[in-house]
Amino acid sequence: MGYGNHLILASGLGAGDNNLFNPEFTTGDLSKIKPIVRVVQTVSVWIISIIGLAITISTILKQAVHGLYATSPQFWDKVDEIHRQKLGATVDRGGNQIQMILGFGLSFFFSLIPNIKAITEFDGDTVDPKTFFTKSLPISCLYLFIGVFIFYGYTTKVGEKISMFGTELLDNFFLQIDPLEWAAKIPTSFAKINLSTSGSKANFDKEVNKITKKAYGALQTNLGDITKEKQPRVALEVENWVITCMEEVRQYTDADNWEMQYNARTTPDFSDLSKVHGGKNEEGTEFTFAWQKPISEFDTGSASTNVGTDYLRFDVTFTKIATKDKTTAVECVLYGGVWTTGSKEATIDLEVSTADATITGNTGRGKVEGNIVDISFTGSKLIVKFQDQKNKFPNSLSEITEVTGLYYSFGGKSHAIKTININGDQGGSITFKPKNGSSSVNSWHWGEGPSNKAGTDSTKSNDDDDDNEDDNNEPETKDPNDLVG
Asked: What is the mean pLDDT of residues 52-58?
């Protein structure tokens, strides 16, 4: 960084002896530490020279040895074989096996030749020498380049160029940017907005606050030139308009069992909201409302041409939250079904619809007169089979006891069936009763689920206040047409 830049920075943070960033004591100077520099210089030159030379020479020698071996691999394999056998012969007590095979003269000749294969990467005959030598040339050239790069100090030269480029960018940045000027512009661009609903704990105020911020942001983005002085007043105007509109649907914002989604934007022209405002789905669990207002009716002081043409609009959608089912899975007794016997199996015909409820479990079991039976549910019938095929089913049966692995499934919950009481009831007349007579849930029919008895809760012993609160929070559902002014 140039000295001039230091002066620019010093002008904003003090000058002279009071300048914390005075370049005289914040910039490095090698002349001040000459003894250390001389030592570091000598050590660095030694290390760089040795490493650079070692990389270069070792690469050349390695390729030379590989090339020598690749020119005549069979010859060097024979030399390697002689050396290995000679080494083994020195350990062998006789020591004359090689002389007997190759002759003393030939063995002596090969033993004088250096074992080139042993110092190459071909030891083990895992690669073809000529192929390896050819493919290794580009890598060897790269190693040579690295060695020369280090030896001649190109690492330092490249680092110097990169550092010069980076510091030049910083110099230009600090010359072009004035942080004080930036800081001076911030207060004129943004003003703190205090809405009347900020900090309120009421649901209505919270929803109004969220919509107002979204709508005001859309308005400010559309115009772009609302002054700092005008901003708080315009924001309050938007908030008052949102409050007036939302009073129309306050019954939903004040209730805990309705969830609100919202959006706000500006539109280039007037929109027909008659098909949107007050719309609902077929189930009556979702209502949509929309409002719009000309931007010109807000005192923005903007010179934008959009003031005379555009509208500020926001939409809200209320979705009813499903009532939480507070019952838990219960063990129950099934009352119903018509008993029919067969040669190998018996059936209990329930004559039920499985559209909303069913019986699940692939390994159902129970006992008929003390004998174990397998039970499965197919179609609308329970199929019963003796595990011991020697047993015979009675013509009539009143119950199957000790049932396991069968569940009545409804509304995402499964209730274990412990006993099947066969009484002839079918379809919607089939009844389920809690096995425990003191259970906190009532009996129910097929296609229904268990419900809590009055004043009880299967998950909490004292939750009457929560139940009452749910009842009180559900607003009276009005016809959307009545809500449209």
From this structure: 87
